[in-house]
Structure formats: structure tokens, C-alpha cells
Design goal:
The chain is mainly α and about 130 residues long. Helices cover about 65% and strands about 5% of the residues. The protein has a two-stranded antiparallel ribbon.
Length: about 130
């Protein structure tokens, strides 16, 4: 049971930091707090922080080395993501300028699809 609780702790820490990075609360290219600061912030051991950092590095949300600064990174989306966002913006302009029902429905569909893209990724593509 204790091993399972430990696993959940480092995953929970990683999830919270990942959310902060994706929502821009921890800006891309900024240094994350030190391991000791994170230990204090989350009330966990150094092992939990180390394992959380491994998860974040493997998902592309951080870059750096232990003993040196670790920086927030926003994993890059596939190359087509920026093109999709640009095409969607063009679609939105057309839909807004026309009174047609089809254009308005297409815009609503595009907006629903964009909700699955992290906020910070959208800001990065602008």
C-alpha cells in the first residue's frame, strides 16, 4: 500500500506542474523552483520530486539536469497544429461574416475541437 501511495504522490506532483506549464502559470523557458522548494511546496520527499521530474522530462515538459536548473518547456505539437489553428481562424472569420447556418455550425465544431489543445500551445502558435 505504501508503494502505491508513493507512486500516486509523484504522479500527482507531475500532473500539477504539467498543468501549470500548459496553462502558462509557469512560463516556458523559466526555471522551475528548486527541488527543496518543490519538496516544501508539495510536502513530499526528494524521491517523489525526482520521480516527478523524470515524468515531466519524458513528456517534454521540462529540460535540464539534476543539480542544475530545470526549465519549463511546452512540448511542441505536430507540425500541422499551427496550420490547423490558422485555418480555423480563417474559418471563424468567414463564419462570423456570413449569416449562413452551415458556417456558424462549422465554427462551433472548430471551437469544440480547439478545447482539447492546451492553452499555452495555442498562445505559442499565434
Amino acid at each position: 500500500m505504501a508503494a502505491n501511495a508513493k507512486r500516486l504522490s509523484y504522479r500527482e506532483v507531475a500532473d500539477k506542474l504539467r498543468e501549470q506549464i500548459e496553462h502558462g502559470d509557469i512560463p516556458t523557458d523559466s526555471a522551475l523552483p528548486s527541488a527543496s522548494e518543490l519538496m516544501e511546496q508539495f510536502g513530499v520527499s526528494s524521491t517523489v520530486i525526482k520521480n516527478a521530474m523524470i515524468l515531466l522530462r519524458s513528456s517534454g515538459h521540462t529540460e535540464g539536469q539534476q543539480g542544475k536548473a530545470v526549465y519549463a518547456r511546452l512540448p511542441t505539437g505536430p507540425g500541422w497544429l499551427a496550420e490547423l489553428i490558422d485555418a480555423g481562424a480563417a474559418l471563424a472569420a468567414v463564419a462570423e461574416s456570413s449569416a449562413g447556418t452551415e458556417g456558424a455550425e462549422a465554427l462551433r465544431e472548430w471551437q469544440r475541437a480547439l478545447k482539447s489543445v492546451p492553452e499555452a500551445q495555442l498562445r505559442r502558435a499565434e
